[in-house]
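4.2 Preliminary Data

To establish feasibility before requesting continued support, the project team ran the inverse folding procedure on a target of 318 residues. The structure was first converted into the token representation described in Section 3, and no sequence information of any kind was made available to the design step. The complete token record follows.
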């Protein structure tokens, strides 16, 4: 059953009317009802297109968090063959918020690391809503070092509200783990590509997204803090999250303009949750294009290109 966001109410009403008519599509009036269905479907499609052509940053935030949006494991299932997941950081334990392992992407070996939010209540609890603890980032470092040793490119699938802020995570060195994961990204001598699938939140995202190429889905968000968190700090009022989202410049268009990301991946009309297969396919094409751009570069050039990319961010805005 499709879940609608608050601002999608006009589309929801039209599509509900279509479902009502489909239930009545029998008997002598079937032809007339079929015509009505076609007319309302066209109207709903046009309304959806117009709505998504001009989303506000806060509306994009809602789309990025949509519970039916495809997550990391959906992309792995759709794009990666022969995937073998690795578990544990060899220091403390396993963190299900970060999924990682090795497989093949379009016939070539690849290391995949990503945040998994979960699609059911049980899965969300298991994966801690994609909010990783230190052992998750240490597992990521372990995988990146292994990929570097065997000359295998790294793909990061980022979708997290942020690293887990719990006491147990802080006790085990959350900040240090994030810093070491970021450092591991920067020091890779193999190409790495990161994709912001939904939410790219704070250090929890940058720990995996410090890449040669950073791609971002059209309706994803990427920021140093959530809009609610920023509103609580700036105005002591989390209800001002909409204002914060607008002022923080968290959308793909803004971040592309600032040079923080390298490419915007177009989503199906109505968002990735409307047509997950199409969203996954277009993301796969964008990943392939990014990897092709980096193919053939020697190890030192790969490192230098990544370093120069991040040092250049913001310089043209001074």
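Position-by-position output of the design step:
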């Amino acid at each position: 059953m499709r879940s609608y966001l608050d601002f999608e109410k006009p589309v929801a009403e039209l599509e509900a009317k279509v479902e009502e008519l489909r239930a009545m599509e029998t008997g002598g009036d079937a032809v007339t009802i079929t015509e009505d269905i076609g007319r309302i479907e066209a109207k709903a499609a046009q309304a959806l297109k117009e709505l998504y052509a001009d989303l506000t940053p806060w509306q994009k935030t809602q789309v990025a968090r949509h519970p039916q949006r495809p997550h990391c494991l959906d992309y792995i299932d759709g794009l990666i063959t022969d995937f073998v997941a690795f578990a544990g950081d060899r220091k403390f334990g396993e963190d299900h918020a970060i999924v990682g392992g090795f497989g093949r992407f379009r016939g070539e070996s690849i290391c995949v690391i990503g945040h998994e939010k979960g699609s059911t209540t049980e899965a969300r609890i298991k994966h801690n809503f994609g909010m990783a603890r230190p052992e998750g980032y240490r597992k990521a470092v372990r995988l990146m070092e292994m990929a570097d040793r065997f000359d295998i490119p790294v793909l990061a699938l980022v979708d997290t509200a942020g690293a887990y802020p719990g006491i147990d995570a802080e006790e085990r060195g959350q900040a240090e783990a994030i810093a070491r994961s970021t450092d591991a990204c920067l020091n890779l001598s193999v190409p790495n590509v990161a994709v912001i699938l939904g939410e790219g939140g704070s250090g929890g995202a940058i720990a995996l997204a410090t890449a040669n190429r950073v791609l971002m889905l059209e309706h994803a968000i990427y920021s140093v803090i959530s809009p609610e968190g920023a509103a609580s700090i700036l105005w002591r009022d989390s209800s001002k999250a909409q204002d914060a989202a607008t002022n923080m410049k968290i959308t793909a268009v803004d971040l592309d303009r600032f040079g923080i990301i390298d490419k915007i991946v177009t989503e199906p009309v109505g968002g990735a949750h409307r047509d997950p297969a199409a969203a996954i396919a277009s993301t796969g094409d964008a990943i392939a294009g990014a990897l092709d751009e980096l193919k053939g570069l020697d190890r030192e050039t790969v490192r230098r290109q990544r370093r120069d990319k991040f040092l250049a961010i913001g310089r043209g805005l001074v």
